[in-house]
Amino acid sequence: xxxxxxxxxxxxxxxxxxxxxxxxxxxxxxxxxxxxxxxxxxxxxxxxxxxxxxxxxxxxxxxxxxxxxxxxxxxxxxxxxxxxxxxxxxxxxxxxxxxxxxxxxxxxxxxxxxxxxxx
Length: 119
Prior knowledge:
Layout lengths: L2 H9 L16 H12 L6 E7 H13 L1 H4 L2 E10 L15 E9 L13
Antiparallel strand pairs: 1-3, 2-3
């Protein structure tokens, strides 16, 4: 570890957020609330996929520009992944050095979806 890394590591003291959670525990409250909502009958559809680097921006732009696709989305997570680190034979990754995980998190009921057959 270089000198700067030692100073940063020595000075790092996690501080609780306004909700009292530590930074690494930042999603516990929202996840707990989401689980409770599902137990009450709320639908929580979401989509997780891997995309090649060149497809990420067009895909997210299309989702944001299409009201029907954007219904209920409260969080879009995009995170890079080094493709070479996925070596299991059944783990299929996009071609290229870098691919991106994309998660579309929704908070909506099935009845609220415009294409729903539940109404």
